[in-house]
Amino acid sequence: MKILIVGGGMAGTILANNLARRLHGELRSGKVKLTMLSASERHMYQPGLLYLALGRMTPDELYRDQASLLEPGIAFFVDPVEEFQLDQNRVKTKSGTVFDFDILVIATGSRPVPELIPGLAENSETFYTEETAVKMFRKLQAFAGGRVVIAMGVPHKCPMAPLEITFMLHDYFKDRGIRDKVQLHYTYPIGRVHSLENVAKWAAPEFERLGITYETLFNVKEVDGAAKVVKSEEGSEAPYDLLISIPAHRGMEVIEKNKLGAGGWIPTHRHQLTMEGRKNVYVIGDTTNLPISKAGSTAHFEAEALGENIAAIVKLGSPVRDYDGKVFCFIEAGKDRATYAMFDYQNPPDPKAPTKAVHWFKTAYNKLYWVSARGLL
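^ thats the sequence. predicted structure below, dont judge the formating
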């Protein structure tokens, strides 16, 4: 049996390693062949970009060689897929190579698309790529005071990022001794400060306690860089001296080009993680269209569930469990306090008051990420 994983991010890496251990005997005997195709030879720790933007990590700390993270028995190629020929059970890569499969897993991730909003890319700072995070760090270093506006695009990767960057900026400016010269103004597109109701109920009083102003029902329409104003679809305006944006995201271009899903999001069964209409094609991580957070923990829990199921298909002929929508997100509430949100399809999150203990637990997890990517945590 040929199992093909397309994408070497968090979801694809954990799944590949999970399967390599579960199917160790089958791989050794040649009964199963496990292949990963990636667009890069390097694996990035994406949550680290937030810390890079604030000068708390350096670019080299974000990366490991992808091959070094994979278990023996996984055939790994840096050769991104360009054509998904699903009816023929095969894909064609950039090099022109054709890979056949019996089971395909698509884990290609997502990308920021600030260019969808006029003026946003040119006039705002963001932290979703290494290049923009370094640029944002330099901009923050040079900022001496004024009005900082945090603006959202939707949907976006990591639902807690808007809150985290806002709280962390509060502490950043406080540490520099200029918090009294900075007005932090947070905007959000729906009628509360976060999409998850209990998270919003926790965050709004925190904003008020820290003197952070906020405006809800603010969907960014355009940015006027000359006037330094963000305009909303609702007709309001937010003047700024420094604009921080959480850009909208889409799935990867190859998904759109192959017409696998609108916006690059592939329609996915919420429990079995199969691509709608395909029994042997699975989707995990940011690539799904599931109504849950596009976050590392989502990818992790999906990969574990799917690893168990694919191994069961090989050994028993059918899957053995459902994915329940489980997500666990740390929420940095400043430089040395954090809380968390844990939820699934049935149970909403209930974040507690931030503590130093949870912050240190998150810091420890940052260091343990590479163990997690190996699927050992």
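Residues 113-248 form a domain with the FAD/NAD(P)-binding domain fold (CATH 3.50.50.60).
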